[in-house]
Amino acid sequence: MSPAAVLVTAGGPLLTCVGAVRAAAPDGVRRSGLPGLDPGCLAVEQASGGRPEPLGDVFALGAVLAYASTGHTVPEQSELPPGLRRLIGSCLSSDPSARPRSAQELLRELVSPAAGRDLGGEAYPPAGTALDHAAVPLPGRVVAALAAQSAALLAAELPSAQQPFASPQKVH
């Protein structure tokens, strides 16, 4: 999972690709540097050739959440919104045992009333979701990437009766 695997729709974000790490290389083979794998979303144990495990998926989900809130998959702790620092930081831990135990546990923490509070107890506005239709401010870097992808899609040539297949266009 990486930011590139998230499809932003009118109904909210959808994950489109899970399991790329497993498909990219057999167990025991280093996965870092392989095409299609975002190094910032790859857990240390998987990058070094370890078997893909659910806690690696939690790491990747943490990297996607970090990207959505900062524009970076490997942000500095200070870049993260205060109410999400502890949660995203735990997902991105190099120690798998320090990560939330499952995506379900992570989801429970995200939707709990305490999710919008930092360790000092000061309240922050809760993160909006597709379920409550609240406005979600995205970092400029994320907005720029979405705009570039939208522009490339709009500029793509559609097949016509005379030319059934257009030349492939690379989307950045």
CATH architecture of the largest domain: Orthogonal Bundle
**In percent, how helical is the residue content?**
25-40%
Shape: globular
User: Mind telling me the CATH class of the largest domain?
Assistant: Mainly Alpha
| Average pLDDT taken over every residue | 74
Q: Count helical runs.
A: 6
Our Rg estimate from Cα atoms comes to: 18 Å
- The percentage of residues in β strands lies in under 5%
**Strand segment count:** 2
The main pleated sheet reads as: 2 strands, antiparallel
Note the gap between the termini: 17 Å
Number of domains: 2
The ordered string of helix (H) and strand (E) elements is EEHHHHHH
CATH topology of the largest domain: Transferase(Phosphotransferase), domain 1
Q: What class do helices, strands and sheet pairing give?
A: mainly alpha
Question: CATH-wise, what's the superfamily of the largest domain?
Answer: Transferase(Phosphotransferase) domain 1
